[in-house]
Amino acid sequence: MTFPEIDVKSLPDGAYLLDVREPDEWQAGHAPDACHIPLGELQSRVGEVPLDRPVYVVCRVGGRSAHAAAWLNHIGREAINVDGGMQSWAAAGLPMVSESGRPPFVA
After folding, report:
1. Which Pfam families does the annotation name (predicted)?
2. Is 35 labeled as catalytic in the residue annotation?
3. What span, in angstroms and rounded, lies between the C-alpha atoms of 7 and 83?
4. 56, β-bridge pairs
5. How many Cα atoms occupy the beta-carbon half-sphere of 19 within 13 Å?
6. pLDDT band of 100, cuts 50, 70, 90
7. Span 5-91: which CATH code?
8. pTM for the full model?
9. What's the rounded Cα separation, in Å, for the pair 60 and 24?
């Protein structure tokens, strides 16, 4: 399984960030402008993923997003795995929001 990877600090401004974590992980804390499609729903919801720009895929540590990026590339999309996932995002001090009303964290 091959796919390109990028460090969280190297994400371009305005990147399309696709978070493939489970709903409880998403609600605990996510990137402010990320789009959420859990990995288990990605095949049925792939029409929501843009065709005209690179898709940067993130999960908790990088395993699920690696599978998602590989599959997206396999079907002809341009997908890049975000190395280290949301744990690296949080460690880098990048902004996060939560849906729970509590301070965001990586679940």
Report:
1. Rhodanese (PF00581)
2. no
3. 5
4. 17, 80
5. 22
6. confident
7. 3.40.250.10
8. 0.95
9. 12
Q: What are phi and psi of 67, to 5 degrees?
A: -65, -45
Kindly name the residue from 8, 34, 59, 72 that is annotated as catalytic. 59
| pLDDT tens digits, one per residue of 51-96 | 999 999 999 999 999 999 999 999 999 999 999 999 999 999 999 9
Taking 70 as the threshold, does the pLDDT of residue 5 lie above it?
Answer: yes
Say how far apart CA 22 and CA 1 lie, in whole Å. Answer: 22
φ/ψ (deg, to 5) at 25: -65, -45
